[in-house]
């Protein structure tokens, strides 16, 4: 198991044009689980999230609410902070792009690119989608009922204005070399291939300033321009670490280990961002992981359809940890997935209540009843015990291996293999029958079940922090013995265990 690593993990900073939805909760949840895992493994972790508050999209949303942009962003940004608190995200910081320190960082990065001759003044003429805050080439545009659309389905408008450009075309080959030298930079692999083919088709210089509105960071030395919102937004990842002060205490976390993003914004993170950084001669992030998109009961999630999923409503209905578990268990991270209430209830009842919950309740009740509520010692070991003990001992490394690839669903599958084995083992060993025939063996079986449960609860802490705290309390594991490394030190025989109570509630099936 790794020790003393330094880990920097980020979520996208979310647009404050609207309130948070399930997609936002999902990206941040994945980041949170990896952050918590790395802390459990002894890493020094910095986990950043925040809000993206400039640009035309936010300006228009403020206008529609009849509010000044700053007041509007103050309000919506708070909703994202509240979401993080309510979802129990363990972010170390929350950045807003309207903060002064961020404007300073953007100006410094711009100046550095300017000084290196990477920026020039020109004229932009082409398609722009406000919804995506992105420029599109003529060959990417389709037309329907007289309206033109980007490949994402966002309506585009023709823009013609003076603009500064970043010499992205100069970076095409250097980017391809960079992907080649860093095969893990873009994950999953299918996404990596998409990005590489896109870059191979050729990169044109990127417009990085706008003059037709003012809600943005001013370009240094030319007040008539505001920076393109994506240059501004991407810079947040270094602002938060103190850039441009490379002596700042947090700067030691750069480069980022994983930027978690949705597949919709991979291009910005996997092409523009490393190009900006290489051009500025700053270290590039180690990985960008693009996860898939959720649909709702088979339908694309959209405000106009009215099927947006409110993560807080789900949490109110099903409980926080079950929702956290479901989102990462149901769909392989990286794939698109469909949200359905039936699937959610199925998982909660089978995986959580029947499987893990029952194993804990059965084992701990038997210890409570038959061992005077004290942790039994190993009195009668048997060669047949090795399977469950070996699986428990191997589990942390297996979970770590999966999480290092951001394969959250695989980590959970591994964990449930031990939970299922535990249930099969208790059925086969029948400690309730041994109570009458062989007390030393009963004690041994219960002790091994306790070892399996302690392992399960320890590795599950990042996924379901509150419930696993309760489970570790019930298992008599002291606070200071809950890290991964502590698993190699057995608890003392005879430790008192509090009376167990169910960890998960079963959910009644809804009428069809
Ligand atoms: O793009 N399923 O912000 P944003 C899963 N400000 N995830 C989804 C989703 C869905 N249906 N819908 C959205 C931005 N997401 C920029 C980012 S970063 C420097 C700037 C998630 O508010 C997904 O992570 O539009 C996506 O990348 C993010 O929300 C976009 O959030």
UniProtKB/TrEMBL annotation:
Q: Which InterPro entries match?
A: Anticodon_Met, Met-tRNA_synth, Met-tRNA_synth_2, Methionyl/Leucyl_tRNA_Synth, MetRS_core, Rossmann-like_a/b/a_fold, tRNAsynth_Ia_anticodon-bd
Select a single GO molecular function from the record's annotations and give it. methionine-tRNA ligase activity
Keywords on record: Aminoacyl-tRNA synthetase, ATP-binding, Cytoplasm, Ligase, Nucleotide-binding, Protein biosynthesis
Methionyl/Leucyl tRNA synthetase domain residues: 8-363
Q: Which residue ranges does the UniProt annotation give for the motif 'KMSKS' region?
A: 300-304
Q: Where is the Methionyl-tRNA synthetase anticodon-binding domain?
A: 397-510
The superkingdom listed in its UniProt entry is Bacteria
Tell me the Pfam families matching this sequence.
Anticodon_3 (PF19303), tRNA-synt_1g (PF09334)
Catalytic activity entry: tRNA(Met) + L-methionine + ATP = L-methionyl-tRNA(Met) + AMP + diphosphate
In chain numbering, motif 'HIGH' region lies across: 14-24
Broad enzyme group: ligase
Q: Does the keyword tRNA processing apply?
A: no
UniProt-listed HAMAP family: Met_tRNA_synth_type2 (MF_01228)
What family does this chain come from, according to its entry? Belongs to the class-I aminoacyl-tRNA synthetase family. MetG type 2B subfamily.
Query: Could you identify this protein by its name?
Result: Methionine--tRNA ligase
State the organism of origin: Teichococcus vastitatis
Which gene does this sequence derive from? metG
């Amino acid at each position: 198991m790794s020790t003393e690593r330094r880990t920097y993990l980020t979520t996208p900073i979310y647009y404050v044009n609207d309130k948070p939805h399930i997609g936002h909760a999902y990206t941040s949840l994945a980041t949170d689980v990896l952050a918590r895992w790395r802390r459990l493994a002894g890493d020094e972790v910095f986990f950043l999230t925040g809000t993206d508050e400039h640009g035309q999209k936010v300006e228009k949303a403020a206008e529609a609410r009849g509010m000044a942009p700053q007041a509007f962003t103050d309000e919506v940004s708070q909703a994202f902070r509240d979401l993080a608190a309510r979802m129990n995200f363990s972010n170390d910081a929350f950045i807003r792009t309207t903060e002064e320190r961020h404007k300073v960082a953007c100006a410094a990065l711009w100046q550095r690119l300017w000084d290196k001759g990477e920026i020039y003044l020109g004229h932009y003429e082409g398609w722009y989608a406000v919804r995506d805050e992105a420029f599109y080439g003529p060959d990417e545009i389709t037309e329907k009922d007289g309206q033109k659309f980007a490949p994402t389905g966002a309506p585009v408008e023709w823009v013609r204005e003076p603009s500064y450009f970043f010499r992205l075309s100069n970076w095409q080959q250097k980017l391809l070399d960079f992907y080649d030298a860093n095969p893990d930079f873009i994950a999953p692999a299918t996404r990596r291939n998409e990005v590489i083919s896109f870059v191979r088709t050729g990169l044109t210089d990127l417009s990085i300033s706008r003059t037709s509105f003012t809600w943005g960071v001013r370009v240094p030395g030319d007040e008539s321009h505001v920076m393109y919102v994506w240059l501004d937004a991407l810079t947040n990842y270094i602002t938060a670490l103190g850039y441009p002060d490379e002596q700042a205490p947090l700067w030691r976390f750069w480069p980022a280990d994983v930027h978690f993003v949705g597949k919709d914004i991979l291009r910005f993170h996997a092409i523009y961002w490393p190009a900006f950084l290489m051009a500025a001669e700053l270290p590039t992030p180690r990985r960008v992981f693009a996860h898939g998109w959720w649909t709702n009961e088979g339908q694309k999630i959209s405000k106009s359809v009215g099927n947006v999923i409110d993560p807080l409503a789900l949490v109110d209905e099903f409980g926080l940890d079950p929702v956290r578990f479901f989102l990462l268990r149901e769909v392989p991270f990286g794939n698109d997935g469909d949200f359905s209430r039936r699937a959610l209830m199925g998982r909660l009842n089978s995986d959580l209540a029947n499987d893990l919950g029952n194993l804990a309740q059965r084992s701990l009740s038997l210890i409570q009843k038959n061992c005077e509520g004290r942790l039994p010692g190993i009195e009668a070991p048997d060669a047949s015990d090795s399977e469950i003990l070996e699986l428990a001992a191997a589990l942390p490394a297996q979970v770590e291996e999966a999480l290092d690839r951001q394969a959250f669903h695989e980590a959970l599958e591994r964990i449930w293999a031990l939970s299922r084995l535990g249930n099969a083992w208790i059925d086969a060993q029948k400690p309730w029958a041994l109570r009458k025939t062989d007390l030393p063996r009963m004690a041994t079986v219960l002790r091994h079940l306790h070892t399996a449960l302690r392992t399960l609860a320890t590795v599950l802490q990042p996924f379901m922090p509150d419930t696993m705290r309760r489970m570790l309390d019930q298992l008599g594991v002291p606070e200071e013995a809950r890290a991964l490394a502590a698993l190699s030190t057995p608890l003392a025989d005879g430790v008192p265990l509090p009376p167990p109570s169910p960890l998960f509630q079963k959910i009644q099936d809804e009428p069809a």
